[in-house]
Amino acid sequence: MMQLLRPVMFVGTCSDAGKSVMATAFCRIFRQDGYHPAPFKAQNMSLNSYATPEGGEMGRAQVVQAEAAGVTPHTDMNPVLLKPVDNVSSQVVLHGKPAGNLSARDYFGRENAKEELFGEVVEAFKRLERKYNPIVMEGAGSISEINLRDRDITNMRMALAAGADVYLVADIDRGGVFGSVYGTIALLPPEERALIKGIIINKFRGDISLFEDGKKLLEELAGIPVAGIIPYFRDIKIEEEDSVALEMKTNTWKAGRINVAIILLKRMSNFTDFDVLDMDARFNPYYTCRIDEIGKADIIILPGSKNTLSDLQTLRAGGIAGAIVKAYKEGKKVVGICGGYQMMGLRIEDPDGIEGDIPSLPGLGLLPVATVIEPEKVTRQSHFLFLPGENSAICKGYEIHMGRTTLQDGAKEQPALQLEDGRTDGYYLGSACWGSYMHGILDNPAVLDHLAEGFSHHREDTPFDYAAFKEEQYNKLAAHVRRHIDMEQIYRQLL
User: Facing residues of 84 across strands?
Assistant: First the structure.
């Protein structure tokens, strides 16, 4: 029987320091070493979410970490998810179910509600701790935001409640690493400072040996050991946590590839639906809202949105909607997923004002369907047949949407999917025009190959196995971190 380890928590000097990737690495390392780890992040703010087997909704970052740990994702791993609806408010998802929309002022300002929420996340953590060993925790943003300390349910307050050993992750690529580490630790009260067991310098470029004096100086300044210096990497592909990653996806049209223009929406959700296109050598995906880049693409994909009507209005006003329709008429493929599927229909209606103050808008008119936004949120995993027929492949994905889409004007039923429970999903006008509510649909080799049909790069041999590819990447990440971190020191702390 493996020894019990204390929980370990990775916090940051800033946002995007690498906390999520570090937690992912340690989930895989502990699994490789014979433990039974699970991830935990009390509160996540993200438009990238996932439907668990029980039909709950959680942030995808903890799903990635669960995959690395080899365990089934559960909403206890991310009990509070905030999904921004507009610039001032978010949908609050508690234990996988929507609990209403709140402005930042309301969410952070209601003291009793925050205490109740903290109690809920602590209970979720305790449930995990009874089943897994160890719990790999992730903080949010910076732990030195002292104006938010009394409202914190994610960072050091959660670490204290869990009795976790904390490692501070700093992004040296940004510059100012000495000031950010020293200042972060100096701003912590003594009881929180005592939890910091090590510093991890992340995203180091160049010869690490040249930083040896810097390491010693940092340890003297902070009074805390540097547990590791992790080199910057580009050759390990781990799913990004949120849309800040889209700023790095600056691909444009490339010769010799199947060029896929993914429409860059302001409230895009689940952009991880398209990560597989980055990994498959046939495709060149790029995110754009430029008319000229849409026209050059072979395939145009309309992604999901947390505010479909608002994003549709923007597409129409900017001429993007017209450019997509024009591209389809010129023979380009157009595919819609979730909110993008809704946009491809004849119209979208929001009679109850669930998404905002836009009651109705005409869609792109590519598919003979119409959508009504409804209060009930659908969140479920599904197995399905893609293009139901004798030779259909069994695929899997998940639904997260608020809306009911129906056929219009006596249109013939032509579903894109046949679900295992007998339901149908989506509409298949032809290989060049179809849509579906199913997130993760492109992760299935049969769907990916269908997307590539008609182009010279369509492959008939062994299909790209995205699941196996991800396993390889988790192992590469674990090996990379092991090489550059003092695992003996970490295990001594956790025992």
Answer: 90
For residue 484, indicate whether it is catalytic.
no
Q: Which of 74, 95, 401, 439 is catalytic?
A: 439
Select which of 27, 338, 401, 450 is catalytic: 338
Q: Which residues of the chain have pLDDT under 50?
A: none
User: Under a CB-based contact definition with an 8 Å cutoff, are residues 188 and 160 in contact?
Assistant: no
Domains and CATH numbers, the chain: 8-238+472-494 (3.40.50.300), 257-456 (3.40.50.880)
Nearest Cα neighbor of 466 from 322, 234, 281, 303 is: 281
How many residues appear in the chain?
A: 495
Is 338 catalytic? The answer is yes
- The whole-model pTM stands at 0.89
Q: Is 444 left (phi over 0), alpha (psi -120 to 50) or beta?
A: beta
| pLDDT tens per residue across span 123-170 | 999 999 999 999 999 999 999 888 877 778 899 999 999 999 999 999
